[in-house]
Write a sequence for this structure.
């Protein structure tokens, strides 16, 4: 067989693509990117993930902003969580990223450390003066601010009073309870419900559980300089505790837990009323309440010594506003982010859709308008304000995968396929391997 | 001459000596060639290049030679994903094809109502991988799901089919077999193309149903069986969507449904390691290529073409 | 009724006893009906779920429920930034363009591979198969860069033009197999009648490969209609979103989702594909075969 490869054409196609692939950081903006329209008009692209509720509210804010700023057009792009990140990565790779990006802590440093995000401290017209001080640090590292907190969140225990009632157990005092209390109460509920429900969802289905565990023991999942900060010993203790919950039947079976890890929020055991307690982020209270049809309650995370102030809680950014470093209209983008964060009109529309507003003035203004569940999570955030530990550093580059990794090792431990110490070691090794 | 004999004589015919097809050949191939050089080849070669680099999608790729490939040798999760993928290919492809063929033959009758069944049997394949379907799987195969409720009725205590590492892959195989609609439709189309004169002749010869199936249907359907086999193997090696949807992208529980392509995706987009993902993809291409080449070589012995 | 069943029925009547041949159609129907239920369950479940308030779907699963309402359809239709009609239309454009592209370009390439002898044929055929062996996830980024340089992002071109250029090797290969099943004598006869390559293709091959063309149409319709990843990546403006991209706009894995709307619109989006299949499968039955009798 004779091979007739039109070499020139191949070489051309290859060269074009490769040049383009390696041109990141060079000239900016594909045709899909932001552009100057005729007459000094500016078009900004703004992307977020979330359901139709968030999309509707966000679009309202965009419309209001455009009315005040006739020279600016903002194109909103909505999407669902997992596709959102694939798309963002692809557009960033092609130098075609949206100007304003709704960012998550998981990927914040992934993009920021590689220069894809703008340092908001250098952005003109962005005011953070009214922000609760602790809320800025989550988006701050290496001396820059790469993500502006869009809503405050805290890891918490959520309780379903109806299930407590069905089990005939009183909701405990969360300001004094310890991990032992937590296990005992959960086991008691499971016993009383006798297969119809369980005391609590497993710890270890989310890296925040380990982080709090570490923080209560003087460590931290991540360090400020982007390393793992938790020791094999504490991680082993953590997995041992998970195992203890299983053996006491405080949590459902391993199969059940492993199934629940990846269930949609509404389909999860907590949302369907099978659990008395579970671990959630405080801004999910509304979603869980709606799904379960119950008025759920937030409780503080238990501590080792029975003092709530020692439970290691911190304010996390439920999500962040970031601006692409390759945006051609950084000033306009910053102005819009400023509007989202500080303008009462925007605050009154968005309310607590992305979490409790970190701007204290906005928070005070919107609190009376919140739905009961959102009001409850806002109150919870307010209440624990006095008990917070140090801010928790954002995961370093490569740390975004830690949730999936800890889920896997928790599954191994729950199924009895790995002992806690082996799982702890393997977990830490794997996470270290991911860091870059 | 009997119909079967006639079939045999057709087999031998081969028209040769068409030297002046070059121009016509390339003219008919022109759209495809254009697509190849303008759209397909560039990105493919780019990914080949990227497989020799450290590329995090955000910064420019850095050439690291064979590092990605040597890393694959010691990556245990990758080895596990290969095991999972091979198991899936070897179990689910034959099962799915057998069921698709059987149903195609059964449904390929003029009997009243068959159009209805054809449509109904294709339904699961219509649903694709929508979010709704992901929810449904959990509803059916979950610990307290429909399947277990049914099993409870007959006194069997079920388990969490998709959440137990020992049964999760098997459940995915079942799900895949369940969407046999596409190969079934292709088989149906293939059956449609078998000239009915063969059957008529065979009836005259007094051949029974089974005999007709094995001596007419099966041989004349071999090009289509071959097509389905080749393509289903390629698809099974690239299996992604079902595992992604059912495990929420985690390949869990405990990596038991971590298909090769799912792991590749996880590395590329989850871990921003597109260089490594590209290396994995080209490794997969070699595996699939070997299987496909073997399929083509073996096809000489069992696939019958009318030309 | 086919000649076969006619013959068996007559035979059974003649003997006057219930024979296997007589019972068989019944047995087949019973088995088919039972399996049809299993196949139907998900669709029934989806339809029922779409008629219930979103937050009840999970608390009380199953399909035997009263109190069904169509609110989800009304709400879901207008829940996103555009009415759902817009997404249906966008999908329709992409689907129709893709079908046209695949039918024309793939059949041409397939004819070349199956019937014409030209230099380098085997090589190109191998390249064609190779082109579907790479997972999309590693070619999507270079491809995006390519299309972005062409100025095609946020248009339907990256979704349709590749189909016009026969990049869907699946269908090329499928058609090759079908064309090779057509007796070559027919080509020869046409050639003797003075037909050139072009008219053999148009007058002999194409009419004889209607089942393959129908299959291609059905599959292209369904796969394009359901394809999520490339449509997600290439369409950025919600005006341009297609059905699968829009459907995911109802869901947020970390917060509240509008499951009711999502199920309702999923059912809506299922209607066109199901109709396409119902319509298309008639061409699979009609058949042509060489003698035309069935």
């Amino acid at each position: 067989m004779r091979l007739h490869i039109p070499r020139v054409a191949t070489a051309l196609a290859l060269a074009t693509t490769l040049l383009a692939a390696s041109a990141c950081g060079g000239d900016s903006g594909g045709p899909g990117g932001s552009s100057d329209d005729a007459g000094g008009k500016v078009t900004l692209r703004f992307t977020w993930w979330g359901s139709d509720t968030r999309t509707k509210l966000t679009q309202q804010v965009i419309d209001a902003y455009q009315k005040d700023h006739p020279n600016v057009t903002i194109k909103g792009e909505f999407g669902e969580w997992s596709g959102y990140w694939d798309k963002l990565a692809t557009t960033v790779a092609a130098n075609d990223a949206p100007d304003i990006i709704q960012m998550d802590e998981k990927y914040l440093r992934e993009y920021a450390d590689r220069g894809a995000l703008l340092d908001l401290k250098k952005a003109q017209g962005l005011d953070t003066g009214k922000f609760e001080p602790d809320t800025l640090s989550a988006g701050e590292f290496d001396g820059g601010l790469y993500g502006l907190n869009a809503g405050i969140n805290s890891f918490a225990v959520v309780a379903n009073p109806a299930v407590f009632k069905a089990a005939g157990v009183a909701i405990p005092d969360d300001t004094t309870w310890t991990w032992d209390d937590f296990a005992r109460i959960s086991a008691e509920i499971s016993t009383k419900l006798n297969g119809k429900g369980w005391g609590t969802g497993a710890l270890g289905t989310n890296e925040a559980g380990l982080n709090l565990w570490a923080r209560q023991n003087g460590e931290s999942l991540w360090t400020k300089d982007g390393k793992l900060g938790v020791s094999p010993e504490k991680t082993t203790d953590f997995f041992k505790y998970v195992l203890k919950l299983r053996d006491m039947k405080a949590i459902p079976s391993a199969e059940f837990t492993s199934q629940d890890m990846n269930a949609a929020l509404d389909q999860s055991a907590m949302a369907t009323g099978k659990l008395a307690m579970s671990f959630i982020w405080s801004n999910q209270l509304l979603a869980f309440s709606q799904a379960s049809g119950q008025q759920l309650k937030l409780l503080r995370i238990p501590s080792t010594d029975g003092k709530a102030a020692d439970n290691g809680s911190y304010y996390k950014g439920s999500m962040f506003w970031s601006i692409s470093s390759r945006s051609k209209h950084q000033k306009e983008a910053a102005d819009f982010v400023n509007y989202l964060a500080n303008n009462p009109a925007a605050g009154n529309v968005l309310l607590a859709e992305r979490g409790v507003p970190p701007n204290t003035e906005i928070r005070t203004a919107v609190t009376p308008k919140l739905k009961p569940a959102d009001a409850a999570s806002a109150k919870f955030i307010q209440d624990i304000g006095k008990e917070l530990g140090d801010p928790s550093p954002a995961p370093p580059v490569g740390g975004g995968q830690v949730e999936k990794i800890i889920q896997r090792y928790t599954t191994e431990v729950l199924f009895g396929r790995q002992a806690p110490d082996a799982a702890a070691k393997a977990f830490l090794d794997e996470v270290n391997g991911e860091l870059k | 001459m009997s119909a079967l004999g006639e079939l045999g004589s057709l087999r031998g015919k081969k028209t040769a000596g068409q030297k002046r097809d070059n121009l016509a050949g390339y003219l008919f191939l022109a759209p495809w060639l254009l697509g190849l050089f303008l759209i397909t080849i560039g990105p493919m070669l780019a990914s080949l290049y990227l497989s020799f680099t450290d590329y995090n999608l955000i910064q420019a790729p850095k050439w690291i030679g064979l590092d990605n490939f040597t890393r694959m040798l010691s990556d245990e999760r990758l080895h596990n994903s290969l095991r999972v993928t091979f198991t899936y290919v070897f179990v689910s492809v034959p099962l799915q094809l057998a069921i698709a063929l059987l149903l195609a033959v059964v449904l390929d009758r003029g009997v009243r109502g068959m159009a209805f069944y054809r449509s109904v049997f294709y339904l699961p394949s219509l649903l694709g991988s929508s979010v709704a379907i992901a929810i449904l799987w959990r509803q059916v195969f979950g610990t307290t799901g429909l399947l277990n409720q049914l099993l409870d009725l007959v006194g069997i205590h079920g388990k969490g089919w998709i959440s137990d590492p020992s049964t999760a892959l098997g459940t995915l195989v079942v799900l895949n077999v369940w969407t046999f609609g596409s190969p079934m439709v292709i088989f149906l189309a293939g059956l449609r193309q078998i000239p009915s004169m063969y059957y008529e002749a065979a009836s005259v010869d007094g051949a029974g149903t089974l005999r007709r199936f094995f001596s007419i249907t099966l041989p004349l359907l071999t090009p289509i069986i071959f097509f389905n086999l080749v393509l289903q193997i390629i698809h099974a090696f690239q299996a992604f969507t079902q595992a992604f949807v059912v495990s929420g992208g985690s390949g869990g529980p405990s990596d038991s449904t971590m298909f090769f392509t799912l792991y590749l995706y996880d590395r590329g987009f989850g871990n921003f390691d597109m260089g490594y993902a590209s290396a994995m993809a080209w490794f997969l291409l070699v595996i699939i290529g070997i299987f496909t080449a073997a399929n083509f070589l073996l096809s000489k012995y069992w696939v019958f073409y009318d030309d | 009724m086919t000649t076969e069943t006619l013959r068996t029925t007559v035979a059974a009547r003649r003997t006057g006893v219930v024979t296997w041949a007589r019972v068989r159609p019944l047995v087949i129907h019973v088995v088919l009906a039972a399996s049809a239920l299993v196949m139907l369950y998900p669709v029934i479940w989806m339809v029922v779920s779409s008629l219930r308030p979103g937050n009840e779907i999970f608390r009380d699963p199953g399909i035997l429920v009263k109190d069904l309402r169509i609110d989800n359809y009304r709400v879901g239709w207008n829940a996103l930034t555009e009415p759902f009609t817009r997404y249906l239309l966008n999908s329709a454009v992409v689907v129709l363009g893709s079908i046209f592209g695949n039918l024309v370009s793939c059949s041409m390439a397939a004819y070349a591979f199956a019937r014409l002898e030209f230099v380098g044929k085997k090589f190109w055929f191998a390249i064609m198969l190779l082109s579907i062996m790479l997972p999309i996830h590693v070619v999507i980024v270079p491809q995006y860069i390519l299309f972005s340089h062409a100025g095609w992002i946020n248009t339907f071109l990256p979704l349709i033009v590749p189909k016009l250029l026969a990049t869907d090797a699946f269908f090329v290969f499928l058609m090759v197999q079908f064309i090779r099943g057509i007796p070559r004598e027919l080509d020869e006869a046409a050639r003797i009648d003075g037909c050139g390559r072009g008219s053999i293709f148009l007058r002999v091959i194409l009419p004889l490969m209607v089942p393959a063309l129908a299959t291609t149409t059905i599959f292209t319709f369904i796969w394009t209609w359901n394809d999520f990843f490339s449509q997600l990546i290439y369409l950025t403006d919600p005006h341009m979103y297609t059905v699968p991209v829009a459907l995911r706009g109802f869901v947020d894995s970390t917060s509240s989702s509008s499951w009711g709307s999502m199920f309702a619109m999923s059912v809506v989006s299922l209607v066109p594909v199901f109709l396409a299949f119902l319509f298309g499968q008639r061409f699979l039955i009609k058949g042509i075969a060489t003698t035309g009798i069935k």
